[in-house]
Amino acid sequence: MSFPKGFLWGGATAANQCEGAWNVDGKGPSICDHSRGGDVKTPRIFDKIIDGNQYYPSHEAIDHYHRFEEDIALFGEMGFKVYRMSIAWSRIFPNGDDSVPNEKGLEHYDKVFDACLKHGIEPLVTLSHFEVPMGIVNTYNGFSNRKTIDVFVKYATTVMKRYKDKVKYWLTFNEINFGMLPKGQLKVLGIYDEDAMKGKITNPQQQFQALHHVFLASAKTVIEGHKINPEFKIGNMIAYITMYPLTPNPEDVLLTQQYENFMNNFCADLQVKGEYPYYMQDYFKTHNITIQCEDGDEKILKEGTVDFYSFSYYMSNCKTAQDSTELTGGNLMGGVKNPYLKASEWGWQIDPLGLRYTLNKLYDRYKIPLMVVENGFGAHDELIDGTVNDDYRIDYMRQHVEAMEASIKDGVDLMGYTMWGPIDLISAGTGEMKKRYGFIYVDKNNDGSGTLDRYKKKSFYWYKELIASNGTVR
Length: 474
Prior knowledge:
Elements: E1 8-12, H1 15-18, E2 46-50, E3 53-55, H2 57-60, H3 64-78, E4 82-86, H4 89-92, H5 103-118, E5 122-128, H6 134-140, H7 147-162, E6 169-173, H8 185-189, H9 194-197, H10 204-228, E7 233-239, E8 242-245, H11 250-273, H12 281-286, H13 297-303, E9 308-312, E10 316-319, E11 327-328, E12 335-336, H14 352-366, E13 370-374, H15 391-410, E14 414-420, E15 440-442, E16 454-456, H16 458-468
Helix pairs in contact: 3-5, 7-10, 10-13, 14-15
């Protein structure tokens, strides 16, 4: 059997995309309660007025907050070994920096984890999944303020202490490298900047200083988490954008290497190796960036390295130094179209072999256990007679499972796979429901209509059989 015994099969969600209940039981507002695509000045709304008010899809989402027992039971029926989810920071500390936590928020996640354990599912908890409290944005301008480090660590250690006997696996920051991109600054760093919302970076000093603070917050969380429970396994999370040179032109090859280092490797090198990599020196010099370090920062980064490397993988793209109009979409960022690949309805190129390539590349670089914590196929699904015949999703996933199997045979230490997302949820980028990923169909539409009833798709039964066979029956 290619997949090792104990391989963690499961699925992944984010609180802001599935929970709803945005102001229930003492929860404070986060950036995702006010924004579409991370822009606090552009509400997540569609052209619909309900009871005289504009409609925000994420405010109700799929109401997982009230239906988690039903949803987790369905995950259990599929045989999930692990459920990757996030805790909403502002559900625990409504303003982000409150003196005491919100007990109702803590009690809610107690119930969620109890439901997971009841069905034999290990929770894998993301501490910050694009859910920075608005209080942190308004008071500190996110992680641009060094004080936010300790504010975050207080939140992280609060939940780690509370759930130390229920949760073993943790991730610090979701897709931390998106903080490198203009529109990712608010999502990861909690910095609101008008120019960044328009795709421009006018203050790189602030951006990379804030990233430094995020690296420290992550490292401190790893250090303190291991004190709370030495059995904790704490990982990073990278949005891995696999890139190829469009041609063998050395200019294309060099550009691809440079962009790989900047986008894919920089944040991971800091979290896995615990030090700033050499290749960023020229970038910092060119952009007049000087990282302000305090005594002890280097020691914290070195001691707070992660136990495993996790990442999202949806597609690949190409890079070229030449002008090109053949562009393709992607996870927050696109690239140049690869003529050898097909794409989804949203323009994301489908590249299963690229996952094997990526796994080998990462394991060679870091030599610590890897985990694919996001991978899936968004599509317009049609509910007919209580089900969805989503053979296209099964085909996509089968090919990626085969790529993982091949990488394990290559010698990669792969510990698990959580597909995105096992139940239909709100899109992070557009706030829409019509882009569906799940094995479970949720009767909810872009305009808010629908019963919220759950229906099993054809892929539900396929994934159930896959897990039961530990990846051998496909």
